[in-house]
Design a protein that fits this description.
mainly beta, 119 residues, globular, four-stranded antiparallel beta sheet
Length: 119
């Protein structure tokens, strides 16, 4: 089992920045890929960004150029730096890790953290 704890969410004005963190504990040796998803009210959960164990990243088009994902493998932590935030970025953000190269395969979820961007 892997436990995930997210932090760093909150309320920010449009154009502002936030940095999300997700710390993993437990069977961390199983972790290969790490990522962030989000779910806005009435919408499906979507992948925002992901990073593999060798640092390959991918982003949804909606956040390219504004968000940056990184990881500190020594601390078993993944980060999401969010800049130039827009009201449409408002959502609950979930951390996910997987033993697969593709973070969408299996894995573990955090409980989620709310990000609210005011206009």
């Amino acid at each position: 089992q892997v436990q995930l704890v997210e932090s760093g969410g909150g309320l920010v004005q449009a154009g502002g920045s936030l940095r999300l963190s997700c710390a993993a504990s437990g069977s961390v040796f199983r972790i290969n890929s790490m990522g962030w998803y989000r779910q806005a009210p009435g919408n499906q959960r979507e992948l925002v960004a992901a990073i593999t164990s060798i640092g390959i990243t991918n982003y949804t088009d909606h956040v390219k150029g504004r968000f940056s994902i990184s990881r500190d493998s020594a601390k078993n932590t993944v980060y999401l730096q969010m800049n130039s935030l827009k009201p449409e970025d408002t959502a609950v953000y979930y951390c996910k890790v997987s033993s697969a190269f593709n973070v969408a395969v299996g894995g573990y979820w955090g409980k989620g953290i709310l990000v609210t961007v005011s206009s």
